[in-house]
Each structure stands twice: as structure tokens, then as C-alpha cells.
Amino acid sequence: MSDGRDILRGDLDQIIAQGRLNALFQPIASMRDGEAFGYEGLVRGPSTSFLHSPINLFRVAEECGLLAQLDFACRRTIVAAFVRERLPGKLFLNVCPATLIHPDFRPGATLEILRDVGLSPQRVVIELTETQPTHDYDLLKEALLHYREMGFRIAIDDLGEGFSGLRLWSELKPEYVKIDKYFIQGLTQDAQKRQFVRSIHHIALNTGTRVVAEGIETPEELDVVRRIGISLAQGYLIGRPQPNPPQRLALEFDGVERPQLGSGRQGSAGDLLVDVPKVSPDEPAKAIYRRFADDATLYALPVVDGMRPVGLLKRHEVLELFARPFTPELFGNRPCSVLMDRSPLIVEASTSLQELSQLVTAAERRYLADGFIVTSQTHYLGMGTGHDLMRAMTELQVRAARHANPLTLLPGNVPIQERIERWLAERLPFTVAYFDLDHFKPYNDVYGYARGDALIQLCGETLLACADPVRDFVGHIGGDDFVVLFRSDDAQLRCQSALMQFEQALPRHFSAEHMAAGGYSAADRRGMMQRFPLVSLSAGLVDVVARDFASHHEVAAAAASAKSLAKRDPGSTLFVERRSGPHAPSWSVAA
């Protein structure tokens, strides 16, 4: 046994010494435009060796006490290959936390590798791969602080799978977190996994962290992840690890909206662009001072290396510094990069205003005052101001409030029509369900308008609970009429579930006497007393294929017709219309 280990140790020593590791790169896609945001660097041993597999490679290194040496050799191999392939975007570089707190750890060693090949640390994300429990958080934080000071960014890998991922997130405050593929694969059928991913995304928005969804293998998983709002994705569907990965992904989102720069009613960061001149990192600090002094409207200057922003110079900081004695002599001829903020807020032009607003308000207050840098494929475009962002968000909120139903706060007629028209224009198949409360007026007359409003709210809450919050759209037409637009494949089952849940909740809204009797007496529209059954919920369901409908008017007419057919039967009933074949029979809760 010892002989075998000695042989493997000798093989590993030789692989490290002779540089026989091979680099592979897996693309990380931007969910805004389908292009490469960056690449994760991976390694393999020699193809003919037992140590070809990374699992074997790192297990043997750990057993032989060579983990730190192997980790460093991997960095050198991956960085050199990344530059050699001229890959765009960021390099996600795997690093074992144990090596950062190893006695032989040298904070500047990785920076030396980058300098040798001419790669900026601003393009490198140190990705912590947690193969062992992390105990010394203080020492780890201290090591990572050195990386941040040099311009690197930090990511936590496999969140949800390791020993202490959430504590690492809280303690280290990384710029990126990668959700373990366990929670991504199968989330289209698993509501709990979707809720986990939504929760992580919510935490990330409130901590200024970007989320990468790992392990995406199907278009449906990509669809759900993007609709949740996650901006970065990785997996076999996007690209497998390979030595020469594509530099352009041109990823097509199947059935998913792809915002374009400056387009769409919801707005994007690109709509807030202000043309602000850029400066190079080596421009003298005294020249920057003169720019600010000569132009009172200039509040910040982006520092751009080539086409990539690397920092931000702030008016008040520069002017304040040069107002001090001896500053011109001490700093005047030094490069302006020594004065810049190395971690400004940088966003892609296609970032939605909602996500941008959450990033700005949830992160440090300075982002609101300093503004943000806008890029396209990491290339500098211009800047945006917090003032313009707040004004745009106010306009969106006013518009949303104007078209929302005041009772349920669900989208009203205008957003419903816009959603139908957009899906028709994009030729996306969907299903429309028209819901209507039966015998609602007598209920209002007997129980009062406040109880009637509560029943309408119950209907809205029930439909929201049965719809997929990612794929489906719930709207309130007005009064006791609702519509649900389904992209889910199981629309009929969801509608049946909604009718059953509504019926189960009804006893809370009627007296025991009326429930036992199955109805009550009330005046009809002519003022004559009449016996009415309990309130029920009817729904008409229509599959919509773009070629069969010219506008939202035709979709609404077909849904209204199906709903009318459902209302012919007593009780809570669903009528399904199949345009391509015979009508499906009605389905009733009482059946």
C-alpha cells in the first residue's frame, strides 16, 4: 500500500515539476445577452495517467501533502492558457481555501503569474472550492483581503453543497456565489428547489452579490433560472469544458425574452447612459485634477484599461486631496490609478432597471452618489447616475400602479393585453384561462361589499398560488373576472387545483347555516327574492398558438366563450377548448 502511494507521489511530483497539467475552460454565460461573461478554468492530468481525473489528482495531492503545490501549479497552467487562447471576459480561478492559510502561502504569488503573462487582476475571480471544512475564518479573510487589495474578485463555489457555504458568504462577502448544480438540475419540476434558488437570488440582491447557476443541462432549466432573475449561468447546455472554448456563445434562449439595449417597456441600464470621457490608468493625477477643476459638471471619471473599466475617479475626493499642502508635489506626476476606487459598480447595459435598483440600494450608499459604469460585453459604454435611476424607477412604479387593480394589486387590462401581444409577436405557445365568480352579486347583497372584496382577494390569492411564479402571468381584469396566462405545460391541472382550493376555502366566507343549506335567498336584478346557490368559480381554458390568433382581442374572445360554456354547469367548473380538435368535456369540482 505504501509502495503504491510512493509511486503516485512520484508521478505527481513529476507532473508538477514538468508542468504536465492541461487546462480546460467552461464558459459562463450572461443571461442578458447570451454571450460569454467569462470562463471557469479547470485542469486535468496527463491523459494516459491515473492522475488524469481531477478527483484522483487532488485526492492524491491531499494524501501526499502536496495540495498547496498542486493548487499553485494549476493556477499557473490555467492563467497561461487563458491568455494564450485570448479568451474574453473574466477568468474564474479555482483555489482551495486550505492553500490560502497554508504556511507557504505567499499573497503576491498569483499576481506575479498574472504580470508574467500580462493579465489584469481585475479580470480574475478567485473561486473558493470547499473540499474541506474551513475553521480559521479570520486567517482566510486576511488572505482574501490581500487579493481584493490587488484588484481580484472573490467567488464561493457550490453554495448549498459544502460544509459552511452560508457562513463563508457572510464572513467573506464575495462578489459572486455559485449555486450547486443539485439545486439547478430538476428545478423545473421541484418547487422546493425553485424556492431555494429564489431565496439565494434574493439574498444576493440585498448583499450586492452576483449569482451563477451551475449545472444547467436543459433549455427548461435555463428558462426557469433566467426568469427567476439570475444573471449568470454555467453548464453543459451552455458549453462543456474544453481546451479551446468558443469566444462567442450566441446562446439562444428557448422561449425566453432577450432584452436588447435600450428596448422594452421595463427599461435597462443602457437607457440611462451618459457619455462620460474615459481616462487611462497611467494618466497623471494632476491632469485629472485639472479636468475636475475646469468642469464643474464632471462628477466622476471612469478609468478604462483598453476597453475594460478598472476603476472610478471621484470629483470630491480628487479636489479634496489636491487642496491639501504638498499634494501636487507628492501625487501630481503619479498615475491616476493610485487615486481611483478599484471596486465601482459595473453593470451590463442590458441589466434591468429593477435589478440595477436593487444592486444600488442594497449595496453601499456610495453607489447612489457616485453613479455606476455601464458596459457591453465588459467593454466600456458610459456611465449612469443614481438620480436618473431613481427617476426612471419612479416612472415605472407610477405606470405599474396606474395599471394595477387596486383591490388585488394584480396587473390590470393594459399589462394583460401587452403580455398577450408580446407572446403572440414572439410566436410563443401559451394557454389562457378566464376565471369568473358565479352568483357573486347575491353574495355582495347578503354579506356586504367588504366580505365581497375578501372573496375577490381569495380568488386572486388562489390563482397566484396555483400558477408558476416564474413561467405564468396572473391578471385581474376587474370586478370578479381574472385571467391566467400559462407557459407551464400543466395548465389544466393547475386550473383544476385552483378550483378545488377555492371550494375548500369557501366555508370561511359563509355562515354555517348557508353552508348547510347550500345557498340562501336574495333579491335578483329585478328586485324579486330568489334562491341562489353558494358562490362558485368557473374557468374557460384555451390553448393559444400564434398562427390561429391575430391579436389579444381574438384571444380574449376565445377565452370568454370557453368561460361562458363552463358557467352552463353548476358549481366550480372548468371547460377546456381544443382548437385543433373536439372540445374536452367540462371538469367540475363536484364531479
| Strand residue content | 15-25%
**First-last Cα distance:** 70 Å
Helix content: 40-55%
Number of helices: 22
CATH top-level class of the largest domain = Alpha Beta
Q: Provide mean pLDDT, rounded.
A: 83
How many domains? 3
Structural class estimated from helices and strands: alpha/beta
Rounded Rg:
30 Å
Known CATH architecture of the largest domain: Alpha-Beta Barrel
Low-confidence stretches: 254-265
For the secondary structure, the number of strands is 21
CATH topology of the largest domain: TIM Barrel
Concise summary:
The chain is an alpha/beta fold and 591 residues long. It is 41% helix and 20% strand. It has three domains: 2-233, Alpha-Beta Barrel (TIM Barrel), CATH 3.20.20.450; 269-394, CBS-domain, CATH 3.10.580.10; 405-588, Alpha-Beta Plaits, CATH 3.30.70.270.
Write structural notes for this entry:
The protein is α/β, with parallel strands linked by helices and 591 residues long. The protein folds into three domains: 2-233, Alpha-Beta Barrel (TIM Barrel), CATH 3.20.20.450; 269-394, Roll (CBS-domain), CATH 3.10.580; 405-588, Reverse transcriptase/Diguanylate cyclase domain (Alpha-Beta Plaits), CATH 3.30.70.270. The protein has 22 helices and 21 strands. An eight-stranded mixed β-barrel has the order 1-2-3-4-5-6-7-8, surrounded by five helices. A six-stranded mixed beta sheet has the order 15-16-14-19-20-21, with helices on both faces. Strand 5, helix 7 (165-172) and strand 6 (176-179) form a beta-alpha-beta unit. Helix 3 (67-84) runs parallel beside helix 5 (109-117) and helix 14 packs across helix 16. It is globular and about 95 Å long. The chain starts with a helix and ends with a strand. The relative contact order is 0.07. Residues 428-579 form the GGDEF domain. Residues 5-255 form the EAL domain. Keywords: CBS domain.
